[in-house]
Specification:
The protein folds into 2 domains: 42 residues, no CATH class; 132 residues, Nucleoside Triphosphate Pyrophosphohydrolase. Helix content is 18%, strand content 42%. It contains 3 helices and 11 strands; from the N terminus they run ββββββββαβββαα.
């Protein structure tokens, strides 16, 4: 087994908060590398854990959403998802809530099929992928005031084409689709 490289870094101070918003907090912390003696200030982003939802209809279609994203300045193909709130009992509960809010859909047999760290170099949070089967629309979406979302049921074959063509380019969405397409049922 390889050594734990965490021991190669010494923290020289407590993390300092340098920016705070309701969504993200940036912290700075000075470290020293034991191997070289080099000192460096690292910036990390603190944010809540997230959830992405693989919502599968009885017709074996996936519920995809489209929304404008300010980072890329374009409308992106995604899957339902969002922040895990303090009121959510679990990632599964958050996935069920996000699916209903963003699409008006609900289903059954919700379970986590994968977890990833979105960007370990800068973030310490986890993105959970929740699969929900037999999804049907039961209400109108209940979008937040900053959400403009359109949802659509898309056949799996078309989703695979969208992945190959680059139409779906959101990294965490691609990761969730990988968990689904590789039939990963347990973590």
């Amino acid at each position: 087994m390889s050594p734990d490289l965490k021991d190669q870094w010494i923290s020289l101070e407590q993390p300092r908060e340098i920016f705070h918003s309701p969504v993200i907090t940036l912290c700075a912390e000075q470290f020293e590398c034991r191997r070289t003696g080099a000192k460096h200030e690292f910036i990390t982003c603190r944010t809540c854990d997230w959830v992405n939802v693989i919502a599968l209809t009885p017709e074996q279609e996936l519920i995809l959403i489209r929304q404008f994203r300010h980072g890329t300045r374009r409308t992106e193909w995604e899957i339902p998802g969002g922040c895990i709130d303090r009121t959510d009992a679990s990632p599964v509960a958050a996935g069920i809530r996000e699916l209903l809010e963003e699409t008006g859909c609900a289903g059954e047999h919700a379970r986590v099929i994968g977890r990833v760290h979105p960007n370990p170099a800068l973030q310490g949070n986890t993105c959970h992928t929740v699969r929900i089967d037999n999804v049907r629309r039961i209400s109108e979406p209940r979008l937040e005031e900053t959400e403009c979302i359109v949802s659509e049921a898309v056949p799996i074959k078309r989703v695979k084409e969208m992945i190959r063509s680059g139409e779906i380019s959101h990294g965490l969405v691609l990761n969730a689709l990988m968990f689904y397409l590789y039939n990963r049922e347990t973590v």
